[in-house]
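Hey, weird one. I pasted the Type II secretion system protein F sequence into the form twice and got a warning about non-standard characters only the second time. First submission, copied straight from the form history:
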Amino acid sequence: MAAEEQIYFNYVATDKTGKKITGELAGKNELAVRAELRRQGLKPTKVKLKPKPLFGKAKANITAKDIALFSRQLATMMTAGVPLVTAFEIVGRGHENPAMQDLILGIKSDVESGNTLAETLRKYPLQFNELYCNLVAAGEQAGILEGLLHKIATYLEKTESLKAKIKKALFYPVAVLVVAGIVTAILLIFVVPTFEELFKGFGAELPAFTQFVVGLSHGLVNTWYYILGVIGGMIYGFKSLKQNSKEFNNRLDRLMLRLGPIGSILNKAAVARFARTLSTMSAAGVPLVEALKSVAGASGNIVYYDAIMKMRDDVSNGQQLQLSMRQSGIFPNMVIQMIAIGEESGSLDSMLGKVADFYEEEVDNAVDALTSLLEPMIMAFLGVVIGGLIVAMYLPIFKMGAVT
């Protein structure tokens, strides 16, 4: 999924002692920023949208890839023995994204003030989600922060790689069909009418196929603005429903899992994401019940979210994870067997890592197979549509040549 757009607000607030504090904070809206300030123990007196620069290029958004790179760089620095604050300074100053530079240096300032890294990261919920902050907190408490940062970096890199594969599976056929639609529309609106003027001088009846294409051209020329309006309305309606309707998103999630090869890829990706997230949290020593809550939030699909939350309830009541997974009915038998072995041998995180590796490779292979299957089908479709239009335009000319 794409990263959320960062909206920055300037604020004025007072702390518990009445001291005036000013600063900048990212949030979805003013209410969210005020709520975050209160959560930090500050009383906001003024929150205002940060004005955009009149001249010059605006800062780029912070993406999940930026966070993954930051995590890997920070882990590498700490492993090399660089102190945490110094590592922030080096990584922050060297980052190409100005917004990321500001974020890292802001974190450095808070850590220098005596806050823990987990407490500081919780101030930036748009960049560091609950899962990330929980893992950092576990690493700090256990004294293994650098090891946990390596695991977090690996987790984020694997997750982003998985997202890229899914986007590839969904984007490729859509992009080709959109281009085909645009080319077809151009031919019908601009090329066919030119041929029609030529055909009027023939003084003979046009072949039925050519008449059909000319009719399509007339229809598109006369109604293209209506068609564009309908397409634009559908896109706007879809985006609006996706942003505002939980029921629509739930139905869409369930529908996507049933879409043949696409659904198969999404199911495998959800299993891979489940295994990778739970493996990372288990390795960090996070209790299973608490970990499952974060895993559910990271599942990316309402079907898996509901199933994992039900599994969390079952586990909190003393049931084994593998038994609860079997009852859910959505996990493959191989996954359940691997987790059963992991529970019995005390190596759950290792087994989950193997499951994640297997299903990430399965997603990769499935995407390649789908692309290989779609390529000839799409080429055939384009050949029929574009070739058919060209043949329709040249049929009268061939007919005249045959009569001559």
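That's the output from the first submission. The warning seems to come from a hidden character in my clipboard, not from the data itself. Residues 208 and 392 are 9 Å apart (CA to CA).
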